Amino acid sequence: MYTNILTTQGNGISTITINRPSKLNALNKETIQELHAAFRVADLDHDTKVIIVTGSGDKAFVAGADISEFSDFSVNEGGQLAAKGQELLFDYVANLSTPVIAAVNGFALGGGLELAMAAHFRIASANAKMGLPEVSLGVIPGYGGTQRLPQLIGKGRAMEMIMTAGMIDANQALQFGLVNHVTSSEELIALAEKIAGKIQRNSSVAISAAITAVNAGYKDGVNGFTTEIEQFGNCFGTEDFKEGTTAFLEKRKANFPGK
Asked: What are the strands of the beta sheet with 100-104, ordered from one edge?
């Protein structure tokens, strides 16, 4: 079905693996299109409660964008590249109603780090290295990197990373709050699945509402508190709310219908 990615589904988890090992899983136009399609399929699948995105092999999550595709672009073409990429993949992932965990296995550079940052949170293998090297090519991060990195690690640290085009290792990423957990390469997917299992115990409808509310706080001209109130109120009309509160009062485990 796909040329550059692999997908599996089971136990409530859809795993999307970028599979271009000869190119260190670099993002080209075709891969971005395929990722958009795979995320859409997973998000629409009622049996999928959590999406894990990772890279094939143990060297790279995504080593960046495929520079050969755009090295001769004009100003207008460059702007279109960023706009289309953000719409199809990066903003799309950030605003999905299904939780997305990025399991960063190795290099996450440029567009790779931008994809990881678009996920709802990140975990990393101990050999992971992260950075935004774009200014070393005479360009800036164009897939949301200048916006999401400061949100996640603070303006000063983000400015230094972007200006130096340098990489940080997994432990520094953990210290900065860029990733939530660091583990061995062998245990990375198992840890992602363990966290996914904890997420699945809860109401998928409420989680979707929480994603909307949290994201609202980072949008210009949007009052996140107002969005929270609206989403909180909406929860009262769901079957999950009825089941969750009834289960609590009856001192039993909730069995959420996801509606």
From this structure: 5-10, 13-18, 50-55, 100-104, 121-125, 181-183
Kind plus residue range of the DSSP H or E element containing 62:
strand 60-62
| Alpha-helical segments (H) within 165-203 | 170-176, 188-200
Strands 100-104 and 107-109 turn out to be unpaired
Q: Report the catalytic residues.
A: 114, 134
Residue by residue, what is the 3-state secondary structure of 84-120?
Answer: HHHHHHHHHHHCCCCCEEEEECCEEECHHHHHHHHCC
CATH of domain 5-200: 3.90.226.10
Handedness of CA 250, 194, 54, 177 (dihedral sign): positive
Per-residue pLDDT of 159-215, as tens digits, reads: 999 999 999 999 999 999 999 999 999 999 999 999 999 999 999 999 999 999 999
CA distance 62 to 17: 10
Cβ neighbours, 10 Å, residue 34: 21
